[in-house]
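DEPOSITED CHAIN:
***
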Amino acid sequence: MILIRLISETIKKLNIKGKCICLHSSLKSFGDEIEGGVLSLINVFLDYGCTIIVPTFSYKFLINPPDEKRYKKNGYNYSIKIDESNEIFTTSSNEISRKDMGLIPYTILQMKERIRGNHPVCSFSGIGPFASEIIKTQKPMDVFAPLRELALFNGYILLMGVDLNRLTALHLAEQMTGRKMFIRWARDTNENPIEIECGGCSEGFVNFNAFLYDVDKKVLVGKSLWRLFSINALLKKAARVIQLKPEITRCNDEKCIRCPDAIAGGPVLE
């Protein structure tokens, strides 16, 4: 069993008491149960005054694109139709693509004090002292605003047993180099179709390991490898690497339509 005392000691060791942290996690990576369960793990961070930000994406709110909005280089196969849900996203919704997001984001989303961002598909949610200030910046056409705000707080990214293909902030690094994020579609609270900004394929992000090895702090908790990044240092280094090596974000799937469009600069909005 992973004792909560070990989690507490790790937070102190990483010197992140009172810090704002975007967390990407896999509980399976620990290789054993956590004492008191996932809520106990979350509460240790909160007891140390941390603000936790997590991705709480909810893909069920996606709708098919209008015929007149078929942008080129948008990483989208317009010949495929999706089954649309009749549900409408609101920031009070607890809907989440749980299998993709994991148990920690799911649990935080159920907590009374949590704050959820205003994005029907790629929302971030937060809990803790500065959650509202960070999360309230998110809008349907400004998907990564919470991460930019996290940078203003000199915040951190903590990978808890996952690799860089889960590190959403690398999409922000792409955006910083001038790439446009992809356009998708959802409905607003008045049930009208709206355009929303979304990131692309992240499977190629593991290629950054060769360049970010000196930016993170590493510590083993049970069998779970934790990697802590200063978001400002991460963004600065990753954006520079993308400028020098644009192909670094490309995944290994030769049929992926998102990677080449992202490398080409993203959608042509006309």
Notes: The longest helix spans residues 231-244.
